[in-house]
Amino acid sequence: MFESTTQLRVRYAETDQMNVVYYGNYAQYFEVGRAESIRNLGVTYKQLEETGVIMPVVEMHVKYLRSAHYDDLLTIKTMIKELPTGHKVEFHQEVYNEANKLLTIGKVVLYFIDGATKQKTAIPTIFKDKLEKFF
Amino acid sequence: MFESTTQLRVRYAETDQMNVVYYGNYAQYFEVGRAESIRNLGVTYKQLEETGVIMPVVEMHVKYLRSAHYDDLLTIKTMIKELPTGHKVEFHQEVYNEANKLLTIGKVVLYFIDGATKQKTAIPTIFKDKLEKFF
Amino acid sequence: MFESTTQLRVRYAETDQMNVVYYGNYAQYFEVGRAESIRNLGVTYKQLEETGVIMPVVEMHVKYLRSAHYDDLLTIKTMIKELPTGHKVEFHQEVYNEANKLLTIGKVVLYFIDGATKQKTAIPTIFKDKLEKFF
Amino acid sequence: MFESTTQLRVRYAETDQMNVVYYGNYAQYFEVGRAESIRNLGVTYKQLEETGVIMPVVEMHVKYLRSAHYDDLLTIKTMIKELPTGHKVEFHQEVYNEANKLLTIGKVVLYFIDGATKQKTAIPTIFKDKLEKFF
C-alpha cells in the first residue's frame, strides 16, 4: 500500500454560514491530498498531464463524520491500496483535525485518459515506476 | 416519490484547465437542486433553518459519466424517493446537459439537527407537511 | 451606454461564517453579469472565445456597501459606458438585493487577447457590431 | 511598515479553461496572506473574531499583470503601511511566482466591526499591541 499525508489550513472562504467547512470543499482537499501524494512519490500530477494523460474523476464517495472549522490545520491522508492494472486508480482519503479526530472519509476514482484521443489508457510509466515499489 | 427540476448555467469560474466543470463543483449544483426542490414544495431551506433545524450533509456519492462545459445550460433533477421517518433525508440527483445527456448521478444524505442542542431531530413539520402528499 | 441586468440566487456555498456572501465570490457574480449582458447583445462570450480571442481580466475594483445573504435573489446590473476603441473593455457592475438596496459596486477591465499569439488585439467584430448601436 | 510573506500552491480547482488561475480566486489568496501575516504577529484572525470584532472587507482593488498556473508555488507578500488609527485597516498585497515575477497587486480594506452591535469600532487591542512596534 502507498500512503502519504499532507496538511492544509482551512480558509475563511471555505466555511459557510453553518460555521463549518462547506461539504463541497472537501473535493478540493482531496485533490490537494492526491497531488501531494504523487509529489511525494517523486513525480507531479502536472508532469503526468505533460505526458499527454489526463485523469478525470469518475467517482467520489464521501462520509462526513465531524465538522472542520475556520483556521483548523487539517491532515489529509491519501492511500492507494491496489496497484492500478487497468485504466483507473482509486485513492482512499481521510481528513483529520489537530486533535487527530477523523472528520471525513473519501474515495475518489480516476481514469487514465489519453488527452489527444480521449480514450482510456494505461497508467503512465513514470507514475507506475514510482508506485509499484510499494506493492 | 417527489421530483423537481431546476436549471443553471455553467460559470467560467466552475471550469478547470481540463476545459470541463471541476468535479468538486457538482456539490454546489446538487445544493442548488435541493434548494429549488424544497422551494417547489412551497417552503425554503432558509425557512427550515429559521425553525432551528440545520441540515448538514453526512454522505455524498457521485458518478461522473460525461463532462459539463462552460456556458452549458444544465438541468438538475432532484428526487426524494422515501418519506423521511427518522432523522435523515436522502436526495437523489441527476445532472443533464442541453442534449438531454445524463452527465452526473448523485446521492446526498443530510441529517436533521437541532441547531441549539446539536442533537439529531425529526424532519421539521413544515417540510413534512409539504412532502408527505407525494407518498 | 449599454446596460443589461440579470438575476441570480445566493448559494449556501457562497456564504461564509460571517453569515454573508464571501467577498471573493462577487467576482463570479460579476462574471455572470458580464456573460449575460453579452448574451443580451445577441452573441455569447463562448462565441467570442471561438473567434480566437480570449478576454483575461486585468483589473478589478470592488466596493462593498451592504452584505448579501443566503438565498437572496440578487440583481446584477452591467454597464459598458464607452465603446472599446483599443484593446480593452471596461464593465461597470452593480449588485442589488430584493429590497433594491445597492450592495456592491464593481469595475472590471478586460483585454482582448489573440489566443494564438497571446498579443493584444482589437474587439472581435461580432462583439463590436452588436455593441456600437448603443453608442 | 509591517510586512509578511507566506506561500501556497495553486490547486487544480482554482484554474479555469484559460489554463490560468481564475481572477476571482486571488481574493482567497489575499485572505490567506492576511491571515498568515496576522499569525506572524503572534495573534490569529480567529482570536480577533473571538474578541467580538469581525472584519468585513469594504474595498478590494486588484491589478493582474501575469498569470498564475496550476501547481505554481506562489509567494504572497502582505503589507500594512500605516498603523490603523480609526475603524479600518488597509492591506497591500503582492503575488509572486517561483521565478519571482510579480503576478498580481492587491489592496484590501477592512473595517473593524463590533459583532454584537454591528457598529464600527477600533482595532482590537491584541492586534494593535502587536502591530504598533512596526511603526
Supply database-style keywords.
alpha+beta, two-stranded antiparallel ribbon, 3 helices, 7 strands, elongated
What would you say this structure looks like, in words?
Four copies of one chain form a homotetramer. By secondary structure, the first copy, chain A, is of the alpha+beta class. Chain A is built from three helices and seven strands; from the N terminus they run E-H-H-E-E-E-E-E-E-H. A five-stranded antiparallel β-sheet of chain A has the order 1-4-5-6-3, with helices on one face. The radius of gyration of chain A is 15 Å and the shape is elongated. Chains in contact: A-B, A-C, A-D, B-C, B-D, C-D. Strand 3 of chain C pairs antiparallel with strand 3 of chain D.
Amino-to-carboxy terminus distance of chain A = 6 Å
What about the largest sheet of chain A? 5 strands, antiparallel
SSE string of chain A, helix = H, strand = E?
EHHEEEEEEH
Can you tell me the residue ranges of chain A where pLDDT is under 50 for at least 5 consecutive residues? none
Q: Please give the count of helices of chain A.
A: 3
Query: Nearest-angstrom radius of gyration of chain A?
Result: 15 Å
Instruction: Assign the structural class of chain A, choosing from mainly alpha, mainly beta, alpha/beta, alpha+beta, or little secondary structure.
Output: alpha+beta
Q: What is the mean predicted local confidence, pLDDT of chain A?
A: 97
**CATH structural architecture of chain A:** Roll
Oligomeric state of the chains in view:
homotetramer
Percent range for helical residues of chain A? Answer: 10-25%
Number of domains of chain A: 1
Shape of chain A: elongated
